[in-house]
Amino acid sequence: MEHFVGHLVSKLGLDQEVSLAIVALLGSAGAAAVVAAWPFLAPFVLTLRGILAVAGTAAAVGF
Questions:
Q1: CA distance 41 to 43
Q2: Which of 10, 46, 51, 61 has the fewest CB atoms lying closer than 10 Å?
Q3: Helical (H) or strand (E) element with 19
């Protein structure tokens, strides 16, 4: 479980408490929790992916 928390902290820059809550939520309730939380988490996750994609592209072009 700590591996997943560390992954969320390192890749998405989330706080450890938030990452632990996400992992615990997914570990205990599974798919029902994802379905219930997706409308709230989708803008955050998709925004991060968009920022990372643009930053990666800019870094590649700048290199």
A1: 6
A2: 61
A3: helix 16-29
On whether the CB atoms of residues 9 and 16 are closer than 8 A, the answer is yes
Q: What is the C-alpha to C-alpha distance for residues 58 and 2, in angstroms, rounded to an integer?
A: 32
User: Which of the given ranges, 21-25, 42-46, 55-59, has the highest pLDDT on average?
Assistant: 21-25
Write the pLDDT tens digit of every residue in 49-63: 777 776 777 777 776
d(CA 20, CA 18): 5
φ and ψ at residue 10, rounded to 5 degrees:
-75, -40
- pTM for this one? 0.43
Structure tokens at 17: 């408490």
